Each structure stands twice: as C-alpha cells, then as structure tokens.
Amino acid sequence: MEDRLFPKTLDELILEKVRFFFLPDRTAAFIKNIFDGKVSERSLICCHSGCDVCNETIYNCYMAVKKEWENL
After folding, report:
1. Is the pLDDT of residue 1 over 60?
2. Distance from CA of residue 8 to its chain's centroid?
3. Which of 9, 25, 63, 72 has the highest local Cβ count within 10 Å?
4. Cα–Cα distance, 50 to 67 (Å, whole number)
C-alpha cells in the first residue's frame, strides 16, 4: 500500500484499474458512467462475439473498482 496524504479519488482508482485490465483509457469514462447510474451494470454481458473491448472485462474491472472503493 502506498503512503498518500489523501486517499485516491474515484477517477484515479478507475483509471488505475482500467490500465490494470489493459483496457483503453477511454473505458474509464464508461465505468464512471456506471458508478453515476447513467449506464446499468446489467448491460455488461459478454456476447462471445470477440468485441474489441469485451463487456466481461469491463464488468470485471468495474467490480474491482467497486470493491476497492468500498474499502477506502
């Protein structure tokens, strides 16, 4: 755990996890919209069609952010 004067912001945490999951940085805005309730997390269902950015990976990233955000 890194020593910080202030805890990470949600935006910092999202970008960190997006990069951890090797998602494009533009995905961070989409995940932020899920947190803001603008997009339903139920829409993140993998259709197994080989999308460039898979909804399952986005969902896993979102859940990692959500878990860490609740523990801050």
Report:
1. no
2. 14
3. 63
4. 27
Kindly report, residue by residue over 18-56, the tens digit of the pLDDT: 999 999 999 999 999 999 999 999 999 999 898 888 999
C-alpha count within 13 angstroms, C-beta hemisphere, residue 12: 6
Position 17, amino acid: K
Residues 6+ apart with CB under 8 A from 60: 21
What token pair was written down for 6? 């202030």
Helix 55-70 and helix 27-35: axis angle, to 10°?
60
b/e burial code for range 47-67 (CB count within 10 A of at least 16 → b): eeeeeeebeebbbebbebbbe
